[in-house]
Amino acid sequence: MSFLESLNISGSGLTAQRLRMDVISENIANQDATRTEEGGPYRRKMVVLSSANNFKNMMLQNINEYVAGGVEVTEIADDQSEFKLVYNPEHPDADESGYVSMPNVDTLKETVDMMEAYRAYQANVTALNTVKQMAVKALEIGR
Question: pTM for this one?
Answer without folding.
Answer: 0.82
